[in-house]
Design a protein that fits this description.
Layout lengths: L3 H13 L2 H8 L3 H15 L4 E3 L4 E3 L1 H27 L5 E7 L1 H18 L3 E7 L6 H4 L3 E5 L7 E9 L1 E5 L1 H7 L5 H4 L3 E5 L6 E5 L2 E5 L2 E6 L2 H9 L4 E5 H10 L3 E2 L5 E2 L2 E8 L6 H14 L12
Parallel strand pairs: 3-4, 3-5, 8-11, 8-12
Antiparallel strand pairs: 1-2, 5-15, 6-15, 7-12, 7-13, 9-10, 9-14
Length: 302
């Protein structure tokens, strides 16, 4: 009989690219994952993975079996979740991906609230600032800040966020405070390297792009925030990164007479299967934790 634990070991090995990485994802010893793979191959009567000392690759039969294995495991998980939902509980694995900065500042506390209400959910959260392919990388859902253009995904809106121009008081004292988009172009900028370097602002004729000189390019919002606090330059950051620093006076919001392009937070999941009860419950829990409007958009009392 084919065991689901062997199917799971195969899927994680194929997606992660190595048995070692799969064992870390599963929280199992490498030898256990290897044995489960070997048992699955014995049952199927074919080799699924070609192992060499330098790399791991799927055989032709492994490539054929992978999408079916993913469907088998997903349907088993969804069936288990449906039965749990009927009994009034949520249970089983839930694998999420989210950006590092937002995950540390806001998602982690909100997930603790969710797990306290649903202790039988086996949650795995992976923080990564690269663009994660939820459909191909085996995630049940991903948190996205900004538009979800992937037609393979369905997105549930969680919260809004503005993007704010900010700088330290020391930087503005030395370089001056820009009061227009034209003046802004002459300043040093801290840019996010994982999106277009242009800063987009809404003006009377539609949208205009500003291309400031880069003092730093980095793919992490927390590093950008800290660089702005240190006086390296002006940053355009989501309000959820800088609301505390603005309240404390460590950063100052800059008004250039035009509003920067905003963004929304979404929980996105693959379109090829309907949202499980766990994903629906998670989205509802996150929306409640963040608030409407979200707490990072609400001015704090002095």
């Amino acid at each position: 009989m084919m065991k689901l634990e062997g199917v799971e070991a195969f899927i994680h090995t194929a997606e992660a690219g190595s048995i070692s990485a799969a064992s870390r994802r599963l929280g199992l010893a490498k030898s256990v994952v290897s044995e489960r793979l070997a048992e699955l191959e014995r049952f199927l009567g074919t080799r699924l993975i070609q192992r060499t000392t330098r790399k791991l690759s799927l055989t032709m039969n492994g490539q054929t079996f992978l999408p079916r294995a993913q469907r088998i495991l997903r349907e088993a998980s969804e069936a288990s979740a449906e039965l749990a939902e009927r009994s009034g509980t949520l249970a089983g694995p839930l694998r999420l991906s989210a950006p590092v900065g937002f995950g540390i500042l806001h998602l982690a506390p909100a997930l603790c609230t969710f797990l306290a209400a649903h202790p039988d959910v086996d949650l795995t959260l992976e923080l990564d600032d690269r663009f994660v392919d939820a459909a191909a990388d085996g995630y049940d859902a991903v948190l996205r800040h900004g538009a979800v253009g992937d037609t393979r995904l369905i997105a549930r809106r969680l919260a809004t966020s503005r993007r704010l121009l900010v700088a330290s008081p020391a930087y503005l004292a030395e370089r001056g405070t820009p009061g227009s988009l034209a003046e802004l172009e002459g300043h040093s900028a801290i840019l996010y390297s994982n999106r277009d370097v242009d800063w987009r602002f809404q003006v009377s004729g539609g949208w205009t792009a500003i291309r400031p000189r880069a003092a730093l390019r980095v793919n992490n919002g927390l590093v950008m925030r800290d660089a702005a606090v240190a006086g390296l330059g002006i940053a355009l950051l989501p309000s959820f990164f800088v609301h505390s620093e603005l309240d404390q006076g460590r950063l100052v919001q800059i008004d250039v007479g035009a509003e920067a392009e905003g963004a929304e937070l979404f929980l996105a999941y693959p379109r090829d299967h309907s949202a499980s009860a766990k994903i629906r419950a998670l989205a509802d829990s996150l929306r409640k934790s963040f608030g409407d409007p979200p707490y990072w958009e609400v001015p704090r009392s002095p």
